[in-house]
């Protein structure tokens, strides 16, 4: 990429690895924005929440056949399955030189598309991974989710997709459904949390964890916090955060060095929670980034991001099932739904 000064702005040119031009911006100018130019912040009653709804498409047009290569997603641990899909899609992208060629990545029960559906977490991670691949390679890849009751190995009738110009579909009882964003009517529901219990926050010394800790103390009167991070008390700003939380009303703030993806280390931390302040809340806000385009990702880079988010979430779930929790919250990311380019591993980990 080349950036050249031009008047009050810059001129931008970019090329691919072979030197072929891919982008030219004649002029890019940045300007300061005054506070009065910004729209006022929304109120809690605004309908700013969204969900995914699945809409049924009309029957396919048999006169518009589609020719797909197919990648069937198997079973196994999330690292194994997402790694196999990563390599399979990469190999197809490298080998397939026909621009019109399309690859169908077929999962089973990866999305909540029909009544009574239950989600396969591994399949959901595959959808997050492939959504980013779709963003980087538009019109090349289609995600197809079959009914959770479909037997493993059963052939999928991709003829149902004839004439369907959609990147993501679910097939339920012979019908094709497609995802659409829909607003959720705002509704507030109070979740009472025992103020004398302990709330654990992973990524507790990070930006999101720190903001949440302050909110819990000020907004909900939480008095005891257990903040986990890989660096623990040595994390930048950890001591200041603990002091601030104490000044806001917390009576016990412990910052512990613990990687929640290490099951044994996490179990040790949980065992040290005092009985007179039992664990009553868990918030998983930890995560790491290792961004890169889809074709450059490796199993190692995929595992690094999955470990911090997905593996840690599984450990937290398994090790706290016997606790009397008021809340168990997992932080996610819109990248899992929209497939942010350059973040396929992060999208998979957050799906």
Automatic annotation (TrEMBL):
InterPro entries: KR_dom, NAD(P)-bd_dom_sf, PKS_KR, PKS_NRPS_Biosynth_Enz, SpnB-like_Rossmann. GO terms for molecular function: fatty acid synthase activity. Keywords: Multifunctional enzyme, Transferase. GO terms for biological process: fatty acid biosynthetic process. Residues 197-351 form the Ketoreductase domain. PANTHER family: FATTY ACID SYNTHASE (PTHR43775), INACTIVE PHENOLPHTHIOCEROL SYNTHESIS POLYKETIDE SYNTHASE TYPE I PKS1-RELATED (PTHR43775:SF51). This is SDR family NAD(P)-dependent oxidoreductase. It comes from Streptomyces boncukensis.
